Amino acid sequence: MFKKILIANRGEIAARVIRTCKSLGIATVSIYSKVDKEAPHVKMADEAYEVGNPKVTDSYLKIDKILDIARLSKADAIHPGYGLLSENAEFARRCEEAGIVFIGPSADVIARMGSKIEARYSMEQAGVPVVPGISCALADAEEAAQAASRIGYPVMLKASAGGGGIGMLIVYNESEMKQAFEGNQKRASNFFGDGAMYLEKVVENPRHIEIQILADSHGNTVYLWERECSIQRRHQKVVEEAPSTFLDELMRSKMGEAAVRAAQSIGYRNAGTIEFLVDGNKNFYFLEMNTRLQVEHTITEEITGLDLVAEQLRIAAGHSLNFGQSDVTRDGHAIEVRIYAEDPKTFFPSPGVISKFAIPEGDGIRHELAVHDGSMVTPFYDPMIAKLIVKGKDRDEAIDRIQEALADYQVEGIKTNIPMLQEVIAHPAFRSGDTTTSFVAKYFNGEDMT
Amino acid sequence: MSKIVAVMAGNVYKILVKPGDQVEAGQNVAVLESMKMEITITVGSGGKVKEVIVSEGDFVDEGDPLIELE
């Protein structure tokens, strides 16, 4: 096992990784930008080094500087968390060249899954269902229109390098295609430096259901059930739960087996997530693969009793999984909500100083925190300041618990989305399990809801 | 005379006008950036730019004046 791990991240996930390292007796190294000097992940680590100015491009994305710190501190592995450099193939390759273990899959696999066109093609080859569409880059708007009329409007025009909802556009008919194609291509070129586009048929009223997998470097792969993450705003997840209300045991095992097949077909190693769209007729389609730990990994931990970070470390250190599929258990129901520093109506960010931060404690309540009393929430990073996770013996108990916990959750000095979360959880459609990705747009009439 | 204010707290990413410019209703005059989100500021009614109160890179709070029109 590793002796010392550098965490190339910030916020709650850096703190989360450090906690597991401590429990395994592994020393930790944090990095921080100038504005993060007082952050929890800096205080918790055994060593911490400043990595640069506030902007991520001057700090948490500086590969050279991060590798220098890893060498200087004699870290033998780097945990990338999620976001930032976690799905950056060049970073994974540079770690390897420096003789430092990147806790994740190989650089090749990251690059392959990062290209949405290539990921789609790989999954088709592996027999994993994909949304009807095309698996190669479109030459121009004319070719896009031909493909769209073949598969039927409306279609989703997508950038191959896209992510986080950027570079995705619904096109309803042929007359819209030319403008949509050119606009989207330009945006994708600007954002990702890659204007390659493809398209898929729009799945009507889908649910977002994803499968957590673990794969070691000895060919063992297991699935750890599903998470339903349909409640989203601006293509960002807001509420997640496990298990999903929508799956029966047969479909659960079908999706789990498809996810295992997907991972094995590309020689995957690490914890990973296969995201699926599921339509009203229970057809499921590959959406994308996340080759890293996810924000919502916590709810899988709650229902399985596993520590996913510990599993990542063991896999990266070359150990075999010490359990098989039939050993994976499932108990109770877990819900996670993401606390964002943002206006609950407009969803505009709300940076500032947190003048009061008081959080509920009790049975079945778990917190993952990026802030504390007096923290400055800066405009430089993601607006997520904390995650609240609850577990109950069943879904009703979990919902009751999260309602109570949210009522007792006090953040003052900045605006948060807590009022919006309370409304979602209290909504009859949520209680009845009627959750699709259009939930927020359907029931909340604020601005910019898509 | 009217003041264009920030609709959210964040950094001033871009100023798109300078003093003396004539702007029309609906025109983009500034871009704010915060937490990976960009918000374009537009003017509600036309006029001549009297003063640009903030500079690119400044931090502003919600409601802070950005630009003054004559």
Automatic annotation (TrEMBL), chain A:
Pfam families: Biotin_carb_C, Biotin_carb_N, CPSase_L_D2
SUPFAM superfamilies registered for this protein in UniProt: Glutathione synthetase ATP-binding domain-like (SSF56059), PreATP-grasp domain (SSF52440), Rudiment single hybrid motif (SSF51246)
Keyword Nucleotide-binding: yes
Spans traversing the lipid bilayer: none
Protein's UniProt keywords contain ATP-binding: yes
Keyword set, alphabetical order: ATP-binding, Biotin, Ligase, Nucleotide-binding
Official protein name in the record: biotin carboxylase
Annotated InterPro entries: ATP-grasp, BC-like_N, Biotin_carboxylase_complex, Biotin_carboxylation_dom, Biotin_COase_C, CPAse_ATP-bd, PreATP-grasp_dom_sf, Rudment_hybrid_motif
Residue ranges occupied by any ATP-grasp domain in the UniProt entry: 120-317
EC number(s) given by UniProt: 6.3.4.14
Top EC class, one word: ligase
Ranges of residues in domain Biotin carboxylation: 1-445
From TrEMBL, chain B:
Transmembrane segments: none
Domain (Lipoyl-binding) ranges: 1-70
Alphabetical list of SUPFAM superfamilies matching this protein: Single hybrid motif (SSF51230)
Alphabetical list of CDD domains matching this protein: biotinyl_domain (cd06850)
Key words of the record: Biotin
The organism's place on the tree of life at top rank: Bacteria
PANTHER family: OXALOACETATE DECARBOXYLASE ALPHA CHAIN (PTHR45266:SF3)
Record-given protein name: Acetyl-CoA carboxylase biotin carboxyl carrier protein subunit
UniProt lineage: Bacteria, Bacillati, Bacillota, Bacilli, Bacillales
